[in-house]
């Protein structure tokens, strides 16, 4: 496992390897490209400001994709952001946004290194 946030690994190779085995080489890399694009789009949209509801929806989608690929720290951050957005806690949302943007970058870098993309 590759760690970022001390509580959660950036990437669980076991989960990612299981996904690779389950869906195969070509489909895995197509899905990986889509996931990496989703991370980039999330980051860009978050920087330009979203309503709390839009942010909740985006965080929910990112959480699901991140869990599928085994990017645990990003999935957990997205989950926390989703909950904060749902509760309309703007101060916490702002704090979590700063954290998740860093995790998005770390996750992209780790995926590129690990998957040779």
From TrEMBL:
InterPro entries with a match to the protein in the record: HPT_dom_sf, Sig_transdc_His_kin_Hpt_dom
Sorted UniProt keywords: Two-component regulatory system
Segments forming domain HPt: 32-110
Keyword Isomerase recorded: no
SUPFAM superfamilies reported in the protein's UniProt record: Histidine-containing phosphotransfer domain, HPT domain (SSF47226)
Gene Ontology BP, a term: phosphorelay signal transduction system
A Pfam family the protein falls into: Hpt
Keyword check for Membrane: no
GO MF term set: protein kinase activity
Protein name in UniProt: HPt domain-containing protein
Species in which this protein is naturally found: Thiomicrospira aerophila AL3
